[in-house]
Amino acid sequence: MKIKVDENLPTRLVVALRDLGHDVETVHGEGLTGCADEDVWVAAGREGRLLITQDLDFSDSRKYLPGTHSGLLLVRLREPGAVAITASVMEALTTVSIESLAGCFAVLTDNKLRVKRP
Q: At residue 61, what are phi and psi to the nearest 5 degrees?
């Protein structure tokens, strides 16, 4: 799966996703650090990548309507440290394949993964 990881997520998540065989690019690695959210969104779409982020600017499912993009996973944890984020995302991926999130708007919280499908 092609994935773009936003600058507000830990490197260990990138490593874990790559270890699973995914094609992962980072906002930092592509020189988009500090760029407007719209620039990050356009880059992810142009590359056909699922965007993983913690940025609440991506929280409006009406703006990011399922089926109109390559996928969005918004991570919303109460205590979003690097270990907790990585563990939560990787645990969620044991219950649902990341490929099934293509084109979806998904929100991962401490309690569950909510997925809005096209």
A: -70, -15
pLDDT in tens, 101-115: 999 999 999 999 999
Alpha-carbon distance of 49 to 12, in angstroms, equals 19
**Cα dihedral sign, 7-35-107-14:** negative
**For 53-101, what is each residue's pLDDT tens digit?**
999 999 999 999 999 999 999 999 999 999 999 999 999 999 999 999 9
Answer whether 25's CB lies under 8 Å from 4's CB.
yes
Closest by Cα among 93, 21, 111, 19 to 52 = 93
pTM summary value? 0.96
